[in-house]
Amino acid sequence: MKFDQPLIHGRFIKRYKRFLADILLDNGNVVTAHCTNSGSMKSCLEENAEVFISPSSNPNRKLPYTWEMIRINNGWVGINTSNPNRIAYDILKNHWIDELPTFKTLIREVKYDDSRFDIYGESENQRWFFEVKNVTLKEGRFAQFPDAVTTRGQKHLSTLIKAKAEGYHVAMIYIIQRTDVDIFAPAWSIDPAYAEELIKAFDAGVKLFAVQVNVTPESIEPLKLLPIDLIQK
Fold first, then answer.
1. Residue 201 φ/ψ region, left for φ over 0, alpha for ψ in the -120 to 50 degree band, beta for the rest
2. What is the rounded end-to-end Cα distance, in angstroms, of the chain?
3. Domain definitions of the chain by residue range
4. Domain boundaries 8-74, corresponding CATH code
5. Are residues 176 and 211 in contact, defined by beta-carbon separation less than 8 angstroms?
6. Rounded Cα gap, residues 132 and 86, in angstroms
7. For domain 83-225, is the CATH number 3.40.1350.60?
8. Splitting the chain (233 residues) into consecutive groups of 10 residues, what average pLDDT does each group show?
9. Which pTM was predicted?
10. Helix, strand or coil for residue 24?
11. Is residue 209 within 8 Å of residue 173, measured between CB atoms?
12. Within 13 A of 11's CA, how many CA atoms are on the CB side?
């Protein structure tokens, strides 16, 4: 995934009201950028850290900038939660995950039952639903999800289980937007109910993929699949 236009460099001042972040630009101006991430953003907030924001092409938007990434541990962490869906779509389109089939059809945001899955795909003889999650939480070597309790995430897992039982192929794709981790795990200490539902989903046949990506001010590109550890810590 390449950014549509050059990003703007600055320094992080503070995040507040969940969806707002004050940024000090290199020219000395302070702007308020939209923060798409509704979670706690634990382990990816550091005062005065370098950041990049993107300008909006919509002149009528209330906030003209979106916060894209922050520099933590000498690496960029992507915090825009709208990007993982684009990344996952490109990964599936380009057949980056060998275990998955080549898809002749890929559609974003498809309704199923009382949920809406991020991507629907069709191969020659298979129908797939994919749910995509943004991962930024770091605990030691582990990338973890979620960083706050998510009843919506639990619902997605239970609906994937239902779709699997009805003959669909189903998978979770966790997009890990940082490179200072090497294992993916559910965040047992934050949302044990989600972790338990994830194990239930895995046992029911839901495929799990943890894709680590390299975040730069120019693009976000897949690096490798990380191993997944579902055991409670």
1. alpha
2. 34
3. 8-74, 83-225
4. 2.40.50.580
5. yes
6. 10
7. yes
8. 95 96 98 94 96 90 95 96 96 97 96 92 95 97 96 95 97 98 97 97 98 98 98 79
9. 0.95
10. strand
11. yes
12. 9
